[in-house]
Amino acid sequence: MSAALLQAFSMVFEPYTILVMVLASLYGLFVGAVPGLSATMAVALLVPVTFFMQPIPAIAAMVTATAMAIFSGDIPGCLLRIPGTPASAAYTDEAFAMTRKGMAETALGAGLVFSAVGGLFGTVVLIVAAPALADFALNFSSFEYFWLVLLGLTCAVFITSDRPLKGMITLLLGLLVACVGLGNPAGFPRFTFGNAEMTGGIGMIPMMIGMFAISEVIRFAVDTLPPGEVVVEKVGSVLSGQWALAKKYPVQILRGSVLGTAVGALPGAGADIAAWMSYAMSKKFSKEPEKFGTGHVEGIVESGSANNSALAGAWIPALVFGIPGDSITAIVIGVLYMKNLNPGPTLFTTNPQNIYAVFMLFIIANIIMIPLGILCIKVAKRILRVPRNVLMPLILLFCIVGAFAINNSLFDVGVMLAAGIVAYLLEENGFPIAPAILGVVLGGMLEENFITSMIKSDGNLAGFVARPIAASLAAVVLLVWLAPLLRKLWLRGRRTASSTAA
Amino acid sequence: MKFNDAIFGAILLALGIVVLAVVQGYPGIPGQQVGPALFPGLLAIGLCICGAMLLAKGGRERHAVAWVRLGDWAASPRHVLAAALVIGAVLFYIFASERLGFLPTAAISLLALMLAMRVPPGRALLIALIATLVIHTAFYKLLRVPLPWGVLTPIAW
């Protein structure tokens, strides 16, 4: 173990990796702080660059850029009332109210410090839980994996979306895209229309660049709203008063971190959902709920720690089962496969040094977030003034070159454009995008485990619930599927009861 | 651009039916009950069911929700042009970059987009030229991505 640790240490503290982390941090801070560019987009745009790196610097770039972007999304939320990334949206009104009361530095400082605390908490859970889970997962057969993948997809549709039907549709579309090509049990070219490029399947990375970046550029092009105005003229000392806040709200910090890690680990739910849930929870359990919405820091402390701990949480299922916790880890999984670091429990036994290195990267990313974050807040006014009408065309060109660079193929550029237009239209019409991404990423795994299980059990569906863990997972899946129906029945029952009582 | 759910429902229903029809022709694996048609077939049935539900929902709401509703941008020629250019620039790259080369294709696209997004012409030209050269150097020289030279092949560096 110590040899692996040492090896991990030397990989992480190589000058090249450190340089990559610093550059990725600055990039992440910038992308997060510019409204309209999300953390997911930051990672999607990074992929073509990481393609040319060794595995560890590549992961380092993605981990640091995401952590920074999730924090720096707070900056425009606080100063312009426009959240930089969706994960900051939950407490944007609160932070802006604080800015109007002249407390911008407290709001930004709380976002920064407690983001780092939440991130470190999530990392500790990742370090403790992931190896133990991986040990457990080594006993899994195709039956358990089938249910596990189905559970992940089910959660993405039913728990994280307020429109289960539309989520189901985007999930099915994603799974259908995953069917394209030769990658199926019979090696038969499906839906290729005789096109040689399509026999290899639809490239996941160009698709994601399209769905997260091109759709955003289109949205900017048709946005008729005027840009927001920066309210604050000067931001004072960011760190002052944070220790007092930490002493005042220890329960809130812990609760936010725990909830964030748990929500992050749930497939399909990412940092944004963690932040919303955590903010609501903070208000519910607060001693002074009436202060929420008037510029009160308590909710920012709790949901700020939640959104960053969710990032580490999302890596738990990604590393252990190869099942992404959110759309960012979905992209990362694609990169891991490209680097021959196939995620799954065997990664812990065959390549422990890589796992240790990932753990170290998380710790470093969350620590350097504080000094770099302070720097970012200091120059925030300048970043917020970067003209987006210059930035968006540049991002478009970057997307084109990035999609092309993966396979040096113009076909992938076409895939990117099509995915971008479809994603834009779907989102405009209330279809959630995350299930589609999970469908594309997990489609192959779902089909493979389904077909293998069918063959093993000779087509007998009872085989799917013959093993105890498989049966329990099946029961949970069924419960999630039936939950909306049960809720409806329960509500109807209560209504009838109350009307008979009246 | 918002559509009534019924339109999406009809498209998805049609897609499901087409997929079902296509997978009928897929071969089975000898000696096994499951083949390459099973999984996409199940997905297609799912699409048909969801599509039908959406169609019914959209139909019920047809008096309240218009079939197609364009955003505010549709009334503004500037925004229509910008959106068309975003899509046009990618298509232009796909069809022209091999012959014209990366440098001219990228510079023209950037310039057109920035002008459409109201960047002053002088600044737009300068940024388009510099950004094209920087991205080209980063990807072609540093990352070794074979970006095409096209008409500039004689002076390739």
TrEMBL record, chain A:
Keywords attached to this Swiss-Prot or TrEMBL record, sorted alphabetically, are: Membrane, Transmembrane, Transmembrane helix
Domain DUF112, which positions? 18-438
Keyword Transmembrane assigned to the entry: answer is: yes
Name the InterPro entries for this protein: DUF112_TM
The membrane spanning regions, by residue number, are 12-30, 42-71, 107-133, 145-161, 168-186, 198-218, 314-335, 355-377, 389-406, 464-486
What residue range is the signal peptide? Answer: none
Pfam families, from UniProt?
TctA (PF01970)
Tell whether Membrane is among the UniProt keywords. yes
Q: In its UniProt entry, what is this protein called?
A: Putative tripartite tricarboxylate transporter, TctA family
> What is the source species?
Variovorax paradoxus B4
Automatic annotation (TrEMBL), chain B:
The membrane spanning regions, by residue number, are 37-56, 77-95, 101-117, 124-143
Source domain of life is: Bacteria
Keywords of this protein's UniProt record, alphabetized?
Answer: Membrane, Transmembrane, Transmembrane helix
Pfam families in the cross-refs: TctB
Chain ranges of the DUF1468 domain = 7-148
- Listed InterPro entries: DUF1468
Has UniProt tagged this entry with the keyword DNA repair?
no
**Name of the protein in its database record:** Putative tripartite tricarboxylate transporter, TctB family
| Native source species | Variovorax paradoxus B4
Upper lineage ranks? Bacteria, Pseudomonadati, Pseudomonadota, Betaproteobacteria, Burkholderiales
